[in-house]
Amino acid sequence: MAIRARWALAGAGGCVMLIAATWVAAFHIGVVRSANLTTYVGFIELHQHGVVRALAEHFVSLCDPHRYFFWAPVVVVIALVRGRPRVALAVAAILLGANLTTEALKQVLPEPRFAGLLDGWLPVPATEWPSGHSTAAMSAVLGLLLASPGRLRPYIAALGAAFAVAVGYSLVSIGSHFPADVFAGYLVAATWTLVAVAGLSAAERRWPSGTTVDRLSLRAALAPQAAVVVAGVALLALVVLTRPHDALAYAEGHKQLMVVAAAIATLGVAVSTGVMLSLGPLAGRATAARDTGPAATAAPRRHWRPG
Questions:
Q1: What pLDDT, on the 0 to 100 scale, is given for residue 285?
Q2: Residue 294: other Cβ atoms inside 10 A
Q3: Residue 70 placed within a domain
């Protein structure tokens, strides 16, 4: 098996272990269960603000089934238009497999949450782990990473992570899911994507398609992600500057929420960036010199990534 395929499968295995750890922590570890509930309540308080409510409902609606089934297949079409039938098949497998897996887990692992803490009131149904909307958002983003040209992937990874994180925040703020549901949804999408990457790599090794590779430096690959993180920090700073008393009072009273919100954003960025980097080699200085210098006497070993 190709080295890249083995690494991708190892990453998928790691995601499966994280999914299991998330389930155990969310349902069976008291400290985590308490933090999950506290963060949930804090996010709902944000939903009382008109702008937050409008944005949250909009982002969630984009991943509602009746809308998602119309725009998500466009990702498959992009791969077909680019002449990548294998990638199109892999993207279709990601979109279907990830979302069906999430729905299956909801039915196989239903568990009531916080009935004892909230006088019998269940804010979220027992069959809502993992989050279907989070899975849908992240699987579409990761599928688009596979289907797009290599030079565009850093931008798609950055903007896609921002979209998936916005959907995750929105789901918790409107009271549809707990933070742990969002974590698991991202990880299910990542698992299916890494399995697809392994399959594509193994297939290319056995049946080469002759596709070319767009090499990027590590700086070029990570710059858009850094820009998105900076933009997020700047937006938060703007909120603090415009309403310093309210913002600081809220942060002081919701320290766990701040930590969990940062963790959701970190996981979203890590998943999209990790998948982007798994799709092909980066160009170092030596590679750039070789590509721009005189032709070598022996052809360099060809590396592949889907796209």
A1: 42
A2: 6
A3: yes
